[in-house]
Amino acid sequence: MRPEKPVSHLHSRRDRRGSSPRLRDAGLPLAVLAAALGAYLATLAPGLTWAHSGADGGDLIAAARTLGVAHPPGYPLYLLLGKLFTWLPVGNVAYRLNLLSAVCAAGAASLLAWWVRAALRDGQPRFGAAAAWVAAGLLAFSRLYWSQAVIVEVYALNALLAMACLWLWWRWTRRPERAAPLIEGALLLGLGLGNHLTLILLALPCAVDVLARRERRPGWRQIGAALLAFLLGAAIYLYLPLRARGHPPINWGDPSTWRGFWWMVSGALYRHYVFALPLSHLPIRLATLAGDLARQFGPWGVALGLLGVWGLARRDRRALLVLGSIVALYAAYAVGYNTADSFVYLLPAYAIWAFWAGLGVAQAGEWLEIEAGKIARRPRYALAALVCALPLVSLGWNWRSVDLRRDREATDYLAAALEEAPPGAIVISASDAHTFALWYAQYGEGRRQDLLVLDRDLLPYAWYRENTLPRYPDVVAPAEFADLQAWLAGLVAANLPTRAVLLADPDERLLAQYAVKPAGPFYRLIGEKAP
């Protein structure tokens, strides 16, 4: 009987050399890792930053430093990794967490290079190195991806986990009888959901593909082992109730109870944004999405990606269907999510597009080889060099827009705020940027913990008041909470005679009731206005 043909010419040799690429193939991924990490370190924010939609950074740092519970869904995996990075003896705490993003983003780009090289090893091996370099470079130096590599956020780690899951799915499709990639992928998926729940958008098409293979469907033992591995990874969410019982200073939702736990992991606080975009805004959002692809990869990256899609459709339509479904799901989620920064959810989809662009380089190389008799050798080499230089074009094109080396807006705000606030002051904030920056100062760096920072939007939640106010027993707070403005008025009236009350953001009712004077970045209440 003849040996069964491989599923695709894009699949690498495995019958004699095992499941991993040869060690000599590691050179290019390591070069990509070094190049990407070098660019990220050169543009890394020096401390806390609000740039690139990074206002959540202060909350994540404070929660990681104190092993607390960050905003929903809690991000337990990120917080545990972040805690490890807070121990690094370099820079300030924010810089160390910025470094975590840089390492994860560079690692994901390196893994993409490995995936492209492996995918082309049989079908188009002569072009594997060039294709891998272009794919990884276009992703690493694309504007949105790079922007998340230089700040404190969860999206670079999400990109790394998504790339690892895709790579393991791809390995399994080449040798479905081997259980290891399937089990490893399930474990990583469970862990990855402990960083960002949108990873399920990648998992669903892959899972359908695994279960829909009639002739190569995994056995029940493999499926059972994979399910067990997934549950083991997802068990990282047990971190939330365990840490909440210790009442850390950052303890969103108090997930020590079942009700609080479900509120956290289901993302109830943000659920109303999901597919809530008004239909009247849909055409603009779709047009923005289409234009954003060109902004990320340039016209050349879009063209190479389309060429790669065409080539993959000829060689492995099943793989194209799975990857295309993932891209479509992420695009639908990002378009329907009703916030201004929803496009950051597209990073895994952009990683797949970069993979297609790598295949497009190989496809172009094939055509060039076919036409070799019509093109002189030197022009062919010039064209090859031009293609390999495309990531460097992206590097230069996007550098200035992502560079945060001199970004000091958040740190300057903190310096002024901590200098101006009198001892024991009550600070009432109404923005994530200000609240989380002050949390970072207090619990990330251990400064000015005498200040009571109250977030106006969180005060209606009993878990927030019960976790925050007991830490300041000398502050007089109204016992009952029926109305936010009435509660705030009672708090100010009871404490203004003995301590400073500062507004980090304007509050119309308090400003109408009290006279104020500027106090650095604050409005300081100085007494009730005369009737």
Blueprint of the fold:
Layout: H1 27-43, H2 57-66, H3 76-85, H4 93-119, H5 128-140, H6 143-148, H7 155-174, H8 180-193, H9 200-211, H10 220-234, H11 239-244, H12 258-265, H13 282-315, H14 317-336, H15 347-370, H16 377-388, H17 390-402, H18 409-420, E1 426-429, H19 432-444, E2 452-455, H20 462-468, H21 484-495, E3 501-503, H22 508-513, E4 514-519, E5 522-528
Parallel strand pairs: 1-2, 1-3
Antiparallel strand pairs: 3-5, 4-5
Helix pairs in contact: 1-4, 1-5, 2-3, 2-19, 4-5, 4-7, 4-15, 5-15, 5-17, 7-8, 7-9, 8-10, 9-14, 13-14, 13-15, 14-15, 18-19
* DSSP E strands, number: 5
Strands ordered across the widest β-sheet: 2-1-3-5-4
Helix content: 55-70%
User: What class do helices, strands and sheet pairing give?
Assistant: mainly alpha
Oligomeric composition of the shown chains = single chain
Given the structure, what is the number of helices? 22
Order of helices and strands: HHHHHHHHHHHHHHHHHHEHEHHEHEE
Alpha carbon gyration radius? 26 Å
Instruction: Kindly report how far apart the N and C termini lie.
Output: 98 Å
Mean pLDDT: 90
Query: Rough shape?
Result: elongated
Strand % is under 5%
Low-pLDDT runs: 1-21
Biggest sheet, open or closed, and with what strands and sense? 5 strands, mixed
Give a description of the structure:
This protein is mainly alpha-helical and 531 residues long. It is built from 22 helices and five strands. The protein has a five-stranded mixed beta sheet with strand order 2-1-3-5-4.
